[in-house]
Specification:
Elements lengths: L1 H46 L1 H16 L1 H9 L4 H33 L4 H14 L4 H10 L3 H7 L2 H43 L2 H42 L5 H11 L6 H17 L3 H26 L7 H15 L1 H19 L5 H7 L3
Length: 367
């Protein structure tokens, strides 16, 4: 009898071991398949960024305008009128922003040639002060630099055509974003009905809660970040103006836009007015004053004001924010850095609802 029990025990142990091995192999296969799928998705997102960037903006805009859409729907206003009003609001906002950008860039292009004299003087002073051997510099400029190629790159026709190409590309992406947003708004209710046919009511309810959480976080982040960036830009413009530095509006606009990039955006934003001040006044008290003022403004708002306004907000680990900035810059360039935080936050909310992904969500979160 003991022999039979021993055989049965060994058989059960062997079966358990085989099941564990199969489970481990299955998990390994799932992991590698997941990594391959992730790599393929990232390559697709990177190669087709001309489509996916407008689509991502459209998704975020649909979340931003969802409260207005719900309000208009509650007042029995037709969907076509809702969409028309939202499109008009978007076009007005982008038109205003485009006008400011165009005016600022035009002013910069018009006024910058007057700095040629200062630049020539500064370079001459540097050559004298640091005793740069001009014979070697002249030989390098004559024999090493391809002036024809440089002239071709800096030709006015190339610059104008490139600017027009970027402007047309911006218009196409704006129209594509608006088109995507219209279809998302129109298809939202149908999407819930389709999901309800294949999953349980609890899962549909959970899906709705996730979407509401994403909408709340994106709306809070965009509104608060916009107000903070706008305040930072205004304060910086005040300092730039009182110290007599040129390109006040363009500097403020750059600070406003680049402040959407966490951590490093504020550093990049302050570089432009400081550089203009250096070209304009050289090593002077104005350069020291504007550097201290802008850095103090960025540090005060970034370390004290923004944490209080944003609160726990997106609940993302600072390390994850930095990694997401680098990753999305690789995928979509500078636009990816602006979208990195809301995308990562939305992914985190989705992962929280998947039992097998709760570990990953815990690593992403700052809780």
């Amino acid at each position: 009898m003991s022999t039979i029990n021993k055989i049965i025990t060994e058989s059960l142990l062997k079966e358990k071991k085989d099941n564990d091995n199969r489970k481990q192999e299955s998990n390994s296969i799932k992991f590698f398949l997941g990594m391959i799928a992730f790599a393929i998705i990232m390559i697709i997102l990177r190669e087709l960024k001309a489509i996916f960037i407008p689509l991502t903006f459209a998704i975020f805009l649909s979340f931003m305008f969802q409260p207005l859409n719900r309000f208009l729907y509650s007042k029995k206003i037709p969907v076509a009128v809702n969409i028309f009003l939202i499109v008009i609001i978007i076009l007005i906002l982008f038109t205003a922003l485009g006008t400011i950008v165009y005016t600022s860039v035009s002013s910069f292009v018009t006024d910058f040639p007057k700095y040629e004299t200062q630049l020539t003087t500064m370079i001459s002073n540097m050559i004298t002060r640091f005793e740069i051997p001009m014979e070697q510099v002249t030989d390098y400029l004559q024999n090493k630099v391809n002036w024809l190629q440089m002239a071709d790159k800096l030709s006015l026709s190339k610059i104008v055509s490139g600017t027009m190409g970027n402007f047309i590309d911006f218009l196409i992406k704006l129209l594509l974003t608006v088109a995507f947003m219209i279809f998302i708004i129109l298809d939202r209710s149908r999407m819930f009905k389709s999901v309800g046919k294949v999953v349980s009511e609890d899962e549909v309810e959970h899906f709705g809660h996730v979407l509401k959480d994403i909408e709340k976080q994106i709306k809070t982040y965009v509104v608060n970040k916009t107000l903070i960036s706008f305040a930072t830009g205004l304060i910086s413009m005040f300092f730039i103006a009182i110290f007599g530095i040129d390109f006040v509006v363009m500097s403020g606009l750059l600070i406003f836009i680049l402040n959407y990039i966490p951590n490093i955006g504020s550093i990049l934003a302050s570089a432009f007015p400081i550089l203009i001040c250096f070209i304009q006044y050289g090593f002077s008290w104005q350069l020291l004053a504007i550097s201290v003022s802008l850095i103090a403004t960025q540090m005060t708002i970034g370390n004290f004001v923004e944490p209080k306004v944003m609160g726990t907000g997106l609940k993302l680990s600072p390390l994850i924010v930095l990694i997401s900035l680098i990753f999305w810059y690789w995928v979509w360039g500078p636009v990816g850095m602006i979208l990195a935080v809301p995308i990562t936050s939305a992914l985190n909310l989705i992962l929280k609802g998947i039992p097998s992904m709760k570990v990953v969500s815990a690593l992403i979160s700052s809780d």
